[in-house]
Write a structure and sequence with these properties.
Length: 80
Amino acid sequence: MVERILITVCADCALCKDCAADIKEELRRLRIDHKGRVIVVESECLDECDRPPALKVNGQSISPATPGKLREAVNAQLDS
Ligand code: FES
């Protein structure tokens, strides 16, 4: 079982005006639902500019990220 989940978020494309609301809301919910186990780090370009918004969950890309894909990836890591 994975104790902590590191979510790396490209601040340039995943937190841009067009994507920010949905992604930010899901990140907020995940931090509440999995208190202390989800760590979010904002990063510069993740070299996935062709698949925005770019996010990684414990180093695995889920780009182009959606709130649903993000939650699914986090839950899969926590269940493994
Ligand atoms: S700007 Fe987001 S991956 Fe490059």
